[in-house]
């Protein structure tokens, strides 16, 4: 009889072999997971870094754009072209290039947004609006129909009319009475909206008194005959607005056109002050006034000498 036990084969799978195979798979899975996590981490970090760089770039752009820059935003060659054609106009009363250039230079350097106030609607009205492209430009004129016509023709123009109560023939009397009221109604620092000073314009729109004007141009009203309003009130008002400004740059550039005129030179030196003059020609006076204390009672630092020189000028002109 054959012993079947001698031919029986028993195959056992040792537990170690099973564990070894499972362990290899676990290590492989762990290895893949590690690199997957590493890849995702690298991807997230790269995105965050690029986002940070983008944010920094945007911040730099915003910071640079918020810094003072030329208010007009126009290239220099465009500005020069506008000045050239404006000065070559066939209009009888156009400004020469020598007058346009100083005003343009100040507007170009004025920090944005620049506030420009202009007395008079003239041949250069559209030019001032264009040069002060990113700022606020307001025009004041004595002719309500002309102001309305201009606004209808050019809706972007911000123009208002004002009723002047002065006469050019009263130039000396108005000067004397204003100096007598320097500590009362005609103070150099005040809110003209509530003023009773004869030379103070108190019927302008409210925002004209609230805005801090960086540049003021006096190129109106008319003063060619005795009953014409003259520029006495405009020059006085410009001086008060400049000294009474609440915010922004403490300095205000005030230009007086037709500076060779008797009223323009006399009132300019009296209420804008000769020591504030930075440039003068036969047709343009350029003053720079600074904000003053509300308790001030003198228009000029050396008021006595200024007054005597103005009085002698007035006497010699009579």
UniProtKB/TrEMBL annotation:
It is found in: Golgi apparatus membrane. One of its GO terms (cellular component) is Golgi membrane. The chain crosses the membrane at residues 26-45. Its main location: Golgi. InterPro entries: IRX15/GXM/AGM. One of its GO terms (biological process) is xylan biosynthetic process. Signal peptide: none annotated. Pfam families: IRX15_IRX15L_GXM. It comes from the Eukaryota. It is a single-pass membrane protein. Keywords: Membrane, Transmembrane, Transmembrane helix. This is Polysaccharide biosynthesis domain-containing protein. It comes from Acacia crassicarpa (northern wattle).
